[in-house]
TrEMBL record:
Organism of this sequence: Stegodyphus mimosarum (African social velvet spider)
Keywords: Signal
Superkingdom as given in the UniProt entry: Eukaryota
Signal peptide: 1-19
UniProt-recorded name of the protein: Hainantoxin-XIV-3
Length: 83
């Protein structure tokens, strides 16, 4: 029983460390770090009608970056210009 508990604890620790993996390099000012687990990479901020994710306080993005300055991420996940 003790071994099962230790194995479960180690599994949780490994999963938590994978979820918080940083990007392999420091991203530029016009980029953000996207992806999950070991597949993290820098990606350009979204331009007009490009896929986006809303900014969040953790700077944690899975599928796309927030939009460039002057754009907002619409409810359909696309960058649109402020008017």
């Amino acid at each position: 029983m003790k071994y099962i508990f230790v194995l479960a604890l180690l599994t949780c620790l490994v999963c938590a460390s994978i979820a918080q993996m940083p990007c392999p390099r420091e991203c530029e000012e016009d980029e953000c770090c996207t992806g999950g687990g070991y597949n993290r990479h820098c990606r350009k901020l979204g331009g007009e009608m490009e896929q986006c994710q809303a900014k969040n306080k953790y700077n944690d993005y899975r599928t796309a970056c927030p939009c460039q300055e002057g754009y907002f991420c619409s409810v359909i996940g696309r960058c649109q210009k402020y008017e």
